[in-house]
Write a structure and sequence with these properties.
With about 100 residues, the protein is low in regular secondary structure. About 10% of the residues lie in helices and about 5% in strands. It is built from 1 helix and 2 strands, in the order ββα. The chain has a two-stranded antiparallel ribbon. The protein starts with about 55 loop residues before the first strand and ends in a 5-residue tail after the last helix. It comes from Geobacillus thermocatenulatus. Pfam families: zf-IS66 (PF13005). This is Transposase IS66 zinc-finger binding domain-containing protein.
Length: about 100
């Protein structure tokens, strides 16, 4: 269970909508009940494009190219943080 926090990022104070025959000066707040909702902000995907140069010698036509980083093994792949999140959700939270 999540414990309430004393510092909230947002606050919402809906109107009570109570209609009464009482005089308006009688209305005052005895107390304020609070409820808190903990949620994550929207998550965006960050895409990193790795490019390597491919050069050829105009005389001998020998082709030379730089190497991709060792962790980049496919044309398109998931990064380590996204992979860790998916593994956690599948194995710990049992989400298929």
């Amino acid at each position: 269970m999540v414990a309430p926090t004393s510092v909230a990022n947002k606050s919402s104070q809906p109107s009570s909508g109570i209609i009464s025959e009482c005089h308006p000066q009688i209305f005052y707040s005895h107390k304020v009940d609070i409820r808190q909702v903990f949620d994550l902000p929207p998550v965006t995907i960050e895409v990193t494009q790795h490019e390597r140069e491919v050069k050829s010698c105009p005389h001998c036509r020998c082709v030379q190219q730089t190497e991709f980083p060792s962790h980049v093994t496919n044309h398109v792949q998931y990064g380590s943080r996204l992979t860790a999140l998916v593994v956690y959700l599948h194995h710990i939270q049992l989400i298929p």
